[in-house]
Design goal:
Keywords: Glutamine amidotransferase, Hydrolase, Lyase. By secondary structure, the chain is of the alpha/beta class. The chain is built from 6 helices and 12 strands. Bound molecules: glutamine (GLN).
């Protein structure tokens, strides 16, 4: 089995390395016809405007939309989440083309500019329940988006408390919401699943904790039930079921 990784721009190499750590091959996808050779796809983080321009140049949008519509598993991280969203706000003037499919409203650069990037321990009960390991996950947020609204089909896998003084967008109306005594006004959503689609606002490929990749691979196996792939064969001890390793950023 091989997982496609959209390789126009951004952190596609890091995703391929994370898949490799789980014993799975990642295949770089740059052209529409290459999507036919894979049954699942990761859309990495990067710069969604640039990525959209390159995707348009390579005429990838129709093939990507078809891929999503066919029910094939697709995981978008950060800019990839923006790609998958049905609606985005905070875009450059004129907007940008989206693949869509994920019933949510995403806010680009929700937490501010590059210099306001941060790491935070996220509560990830659904991931810990399925993958084991600690109940939290180190979220690396790089000029990250946040999900502000989701449709009824969307399962929220992680959210994040936002302090009103940390929201970069002055138009974002936190004032109307009650703050508690820690200054926490509300939570934004940072990881979701909707059927064949998975999306995270942060970058799991930049940590050594492979549970999100493992979770996605299980989605791939579930969709491709009956697949001949040895990775999904029942009763086998799969390499990606291993106990997660200690979470250290891969850049340390
Ligand atoms: N803010 C970026 C964008 O809009 C996404 C950042 C990322 O992928 N790390 O594309």
């Amino acid at each position: 089995m091989a997982v496609g990784v959209l390789a126009l721009q951004g952190s596609f190499n890091e995703h391929i390395a994370a898949l490799r750590r789980l014993g799975v091959k990642g295949v770089e996808i740059r052209k529409p016809e290459q999507l036919q050779s894979v049954t699942s796809l990761i859309i990495p983080g990067g710069e969604s405007t640039t990525m959209a321009k390159l995707a348009e140049y390579h005429n990838l949008f129709p093939a990507l939309r078809e891929f999503v519509k066919m029910g094939k598993p697709v995981w978008g991280t950060c800019a990839g989440l923006i790609f998958l969203a049905n609606k985005a706000t905070g875009q450059k003037t004129g907007g940008q083309e989206l693949v869509g499919g994920l019933d949510c409203l995403v806010h680009r650069n929700f937490f501010g500019s590059q210099i306001q990037s941060f790491e935070a321990e996220l509560q990830v009960p659904a991931i810990a329940a399925k993958e084991g390991g600690p109940p939290t996950f180190r979220g690396v947020f790089i000029r990250a988006p946040a999900i502000l609204e989701v449709g009824p089909e969307v399962e929220v896998l992680a959210d994040f408390p936002v302090q009103s003084n940390k929201v970069a967008d002055p138009n974002y109306a936190l004032e109307s919401q009650e703050e508690d005594n820690t200054g926490t006004a509300r939570k934004v959503i940072v990881a979701v699943k909707q059927g064949n689609l998975l999306a995270t606002a942060f970058h799991p490929e930049l940590t050594a904790d492979t549970r999100w990749h493992s979770y996605f691979l299980k989605m791939v196996c579930e969709v491709g039930e009956g697949t001949s792939s040895s990775m999904c064969a029942p009763g086998e001890e799969l390499s990606f079921y291993q106990t997660p390793k200690i979470d250290l950023p891969i850049y340390q």
